[in-house]
Design brief:
Its EC number is 1.7.2.4. By secondary structure, the protein is mainly beta. It is built from 8 helices and 42 strands. Helices cover 10% and strands 39% of the residues. A hairpin with a 5-residue loop joins strand 20 and strand 21. The radius of gyration is 27 Å and the shape is globular. It binds dinuclear copper ion (CUA) and calcium ion (CA).
Amino acid sequence: MSQENNTTPDTQPDQGRRRFLNTAAFAGLAGAGLSVGLSACKQEQAAAPAATGSVAPRAAAAASSGGAGKYHLEPGELDTYYGLWSGGHTGDFRVLGLPSGRELHRVPCFVPDALVGWGHTNESKAVMGTRPDGSLKYTVGDTHHTHASYKDGNYDGRYAWINDKINSRIARIRLDYFICDKITDLPNVQGFHGIFPDKRDPVDPAINYTTRVFCGAEFHTPLPNDGRDLEAPEKYRTLFSCVDAETMEVRWQVLIDGNCDLVATSFDGKLAATNQYNTEGGYHYEGMMSAERDACLFFNIARIEQAVKDGKFRTYGDSRVPVVDGTKAANTDPATSLVCYVTVPKNPHGVNASPDGKYFICAGKLSPTATVIELTKVLDWFDGKVNDADETIVAEVELGLGPLHTAFDGRGNAYTTLFLDSQIVKWNVDAAIKFHSGDTSAQYVVDRLDVHYQPGHINASQSETMFADGKWLCVGCKFSKDRFLPVGPLHAETEQLVDISGEKMKLVADHPVRPEPHDFIIFKRELLNPKKIYSHDDFPLAITDPKDAGVYRNGNKVTVKITSLAPAFEPREFKVKRGDEVTIILTNLDRIEDLTHGFAIPKYNVNFIVNPQETASVTFKADKPGVFWCYCTHFCHALHLEMRSRMIVEA
Ligand code: CUA
Ligand code: CA
């Protein structure tokens, strides 16, 4: 490969590369025989200020701070926001500090993790799920969306949830310990993608916090998917699911037309929404794009739960989860409908609720538009006061090529990613509504910013709460190309930080991230109050007194109770016999913040950690005789290297 193909000269202007990427991405689509009406944006020519794409990142980085405050922190300074990030097909959940962009933590949930011992300890295996032989049910995951629990229209710091698209699982992360405590398999679905908690109860005003989590599934399959109806397209269906926030049981599902994508919920608790594509029920992408409009679906939660109570549901296969019929054909009378279908142009991607509680915005993806739907009108439709569901649309305006996701600043502006244009467009929602209603002088596009490159998700600080503060915006760019030192063919992704406190957006930092995060939320650090150490009460197996440490034999089942207190394990040696089934229970008796110990056993594939006051256990067969130094893997003390226990396996 020639040098020219391998590297991009420093002098090549950004615009040139951006144009190349656009051409490449667009050519791919055009080659697929698309006619998606990717016309130049009228508004762009009429109203957009000169593109800010020439902002040189190096020059921006030299600036110390913008209106949102400092983004470069001095040593010892703490971030002012938490960011919760999906990890994509690493299968993890990440915690970033913002505005610095520093990665603080990864919480393992769907896939094993060597640091923590996730997927190795008995406790984590119980959360992940095992096969009859004790091995993990799944070892891969693909996390796309994470959202946190609400109270009074803001995050309350209890939980976050994250999806696994590969195996259609939902995990809950406790935000006091930053650990995954439950994982639920969704029945009857494949390609579980969008996720969003409700913000209050649809009927009980006293419940002004999250009690349900909604899950959209993308891939349609025969129902039940047990080998029947393999070539019967009309039998292929997807479902929208509701999971109980506390028990993590699946409460109910809704059969729908088309494929679900993202999910959003209203602040009044009455509606959940998903943007829908593949109305056509196609197997291949050509077949998924023939219709000019797909839809945004609105679920009437109170009516669905009443239908379940009234027994108006069915089940599929082995699943006992009630499934109500939300197809368009079964919901023609608004007065009794469970679901409202509002049409949106061409394979929409992303649906987002504005922080004023008034609008849901669907981005067109294959159409250069965003559609603004007014929630009170959707409620009016369910009340029979609006004839045509499309009368709930108050704006449908052109933004640019490949609109995907939208964030908000709490000042009436929306920020939408344009995948093909590699831009963020800032637009004013009220002005867009005026423009749509005929006032062609309404200038809804406020600003455009080039990003690097091909942005997917976007989010702003506190964006989808009633307290959107309009300070910071992050954009997840799917291609980094030349933004970082090359490390071989696999590139980092670029999470770019933008100061949105002023009229014009200001790109202030690039952060490389390991592929490939999709979505994230950003909120004020005061909303979380993480615990510093564990409590023995959380662990039924805790060994609270070192005197209880030792070997307990029951036939060939042996339990070895071990405590750690820097710099020693108790007992310092123990004997088992070849052929024993050994369970090691380790309690960390240290109470000091940050004093974590590890426990590894050579040749036995054992390695896990115990944080202060935590208990964890592993079980294995002692099939190799000899001496095995169980050692502390996590630096804890000046005598860390000496912190060992001798396991003797007698032949
Ligand atoms: Cu204990 Cu290192
Ligand atoms: Ca379509």
